[in-house]
Amino acid sequence: MKAVKRLLILFIWLPIAGLHAQENVKQVFLEKWEHSKTYLLEMAQNMPESAYSFKPTKNSMSFAEQLLHIRKNMLWLSSTYLGGEPWELAANNQQDQSKEAIIKLLESAFEQTGRAVSTCPAESFNTKVDFFAGEKSRLQILNLIQDHVTHHRGQLIVYLALNNIDRPEYTGW
Questions:
Q1: What is the DSSP string of 127-147?
Q2: Is 158 inside a domain boundary?
């Protein structure tokens, strides 16, 4: 009888715990997302506008291109896979590539992505979506968004170092 009660409690508790864990995923991601935003925007601010065209090699993206690439990817993924605000690839052809304009675009993209995550129902993070690299869960897409930002932000740290620009203190936690 005790074993049956324990199993019953377990079967009732597991779905509730799972939903709480999914909500926690959202909260943890959004906190990390704000730190990621702060860190990247500090890098963008630290680089002088005259160095936004800097490329470490001829085949590399410039500092500005890296920032715009990060923006494009976060908007594409959050819009396509997390139910974020609609976004058109054609709208990415930004004419004004000034430092100020790029920073505003980045701020907006971080906010849009944050809203997409905030409004995405917690239970949907286990939902599978069709992705070009194969079926993925929305949680995997969430991790991909952050991983992509981190990957390119790491490159930008090198760009700053190569230009003898102080890098901001890491604020990832």
A1: -EE--TTS-EEHHHHHHHHHH
A2: yes
